[in-house]
Amino acid sequence: MVDLPQELVDAIIEEVAFIDQLYETSDCESLKACAIAGRMFVGPCQRRLFRTLSLDSSGRRLEAVANILTASPHLALYVQDLYVDVYLDANNRHHIPLSTILTMLTGVRRLMMSPAKPRWESVPQNLVAAFCSLLALPTLHCFGLAYCTVPAELIRYALSSYAEVALIAIQLDHRAPVFPLPPRDPGRPPVALNRLTIQSSLNPDSLRAVIMHEPPKSLQSVRHMELSVLSRGTLNGLEEIAITCGPSLEHLVIDFRDLYDDSFDLPQLSSLRFLTFKLRAKRLHFPRGLEAVMATLPGRTPHLEVMTAIISSEFYDHTTGKFTHSRNEPVDEALNNLARLRDVHFRISLLTDDGWSRFRESLRQELPVISQAGLLSFSECNWDGYTPPMAYFSN
Fold this sequence. Notes:
CATH topology of the largest domain: Leucine-rich repeat, LRR (right-handed beta-alpha superhelix)
Distance between the termini: 35 Å
CATH class of the largest domain: Alpha Beta
CATH architecture of the largest domain: Alpha-Beta Horseshoe
Shape: globular
Number of helices: 14
Strand content: 15-25%
Low-confidence stretches: none
Number of domains: 3
Mean pLDDT: 84
Strand order of the largest sheet: 1-2-3-4-6-8-9-10-11-12-13-14
Structural class: alpha/beta
């Protein structure tokens, strides 16, 4: 077989991996087939196959992965993105293979864990040691916890240790003992937190108190933040964290979830350049809550450059929707008063295609000033409201 330049081999493998992702072939069939096309493809395909590793309790998956990595330790060196969806339980038979796997991973860059509601004091010591070895990796820059109870000490440690932190539907465990966190490597350069995501917190008041109690210096460098609307008309005090990050904050993402028709007070963020809203609604329309927030933008975000609304809907209602729309003067004027605004972008995910053009036309009628100025734009997307674990981090 003719030897190909390494750059061409890598490009072929990335294209094959993209096809697997596009058609959601979870077992990476195309990439595995590519690995046996020739010797020059074996190593690069292995690196691509093991770049992302998801661990869960289904079947005997953990045992199988532990056996593979034990037999071929070099494969563990390729893992950069790690998602652990395993209960941390003293009586769980999975803790032995899980400990084996975690201790072999030395190059992880992004880590997301979803350990449910562990009793931290009863987690086996070998698993605690393996977990701490991950936290201490010099390569680890992104750390997230999802759908679990968490000791406050772990949150404080994460905020001061990693460049990106994601806290998804977590609940503070006030009864947890002091977590045996690893000492920081004195030779490792200081890490500035630049991305913070807090979604669907189960006790936002307590979480805010932990983060805001003697706010860590790292909050002063956050450039990207994501928050979610937890109850009607409020961010439940989490906007205080955004205000603390205000001088450095450039991009704020607000997830309305399904509370899209309820407004809330957007904090005043004079340095903000990019603002993104996420909404999920059965019927595609211009939500009242979004309208109300947009009308306040000149006073809240005077230096805003790009506003994006990502809307996931099932259908566009032709029977109740108006075919002609009058100007939405409060929103149109507010956007027109943002001197630096260069794009108002609507990304729409719609299960049916028949309402797409009508929705675009309705918004052009409601926002004629910014539409005529060329500031209104549209695109389609396939967002269904689900966010993959690694999508909470940057690339």
